[in-house]
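Q: Here's a chain of 304 amino acids. Please give me its 3D structure as tokens.
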Amino acid sequence: MRYKFIIPFAVYSFFFLFYPGNSFYIKIFSFNRQIFAKEDKLIKYQLHPFPYVINKYRIPEISAEGAYVVDLKSFSPVFEKNSSLRFLPASITKIITALVSYDVYKLDGVLTVRRIINEGQTMEVVQGEKITVENLLYGLLVHSANDAAYVLADNYKDGADKFVKLMNEKAREIGMRNSLFKNPAGLDDFGQYITAYDLVLAGRELLKNKQLAKIVSTKTITVSDVDFKRFHQLQNVNKLLGEIPGIGGLKTGYTLDAGENLISFYKKDSRQFLIVILKSQDRFLDTKKMIDWLDSNVDYVNVF
């Protein structure tokens, strides 16, 4: 007999509960339709290409004592040789010099040459010459000019030593935990060092900057002082630029003690790689071998 009253009561309560108006449950449904929509309940996956080595026993024969190669998009390594071993950086240091210069100066800022540096590669600026930061960056990254590096450091408001300190702070900021710099040009100083792994971090950071990426991909250029009295012919030290299709810069380095260093940005179709070669007997030949190996022994698989 009790059930005769319970059933009508339940039906009535259910109707009242979901009756349109101020019903709490109706509001939940009305304002959150997308949660309950069948098509939106499906999780959407996206495929990403991930590199893998086809034949891991096929190893490129290179003279470099250190090397590291990463797929730039996924930042996945595909080859390494002593990637955490410390080497002298030589002029590859100038990547960090450029990054700090971009942070502390404006491209159209005008700097004055305060001292003459004759050691190693130079763009032959003269004492008292006034030249823009942008033109100095071309000298630094295209021509690997040591004098350009010192002009950039010397003009920093707190002095060259503080500029070098900023270089090391910049390195730590981008994750370079095993590198140390003592001067802006990369001239040999046995208190400084870099690793192949750290160098790909520096290269990746530079390529994020469109202006700097454009500079390192420049084959030749002529720049002048602000008065157009002195002109500097700049030739990229990286002879692979313009010779190997897909090479888009980055930076060379060489001293007797450091050996031949090179970091390259290589692009083929949608593939992008950073190739680091350190303390090589022939950095350009080693890089060519790495490119041949990448083209023939690295493929991609799509993963979620």
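Q: Can you summarize the key feature?
A: Confidence is low (pLDDT under 50) at residues 14-41.
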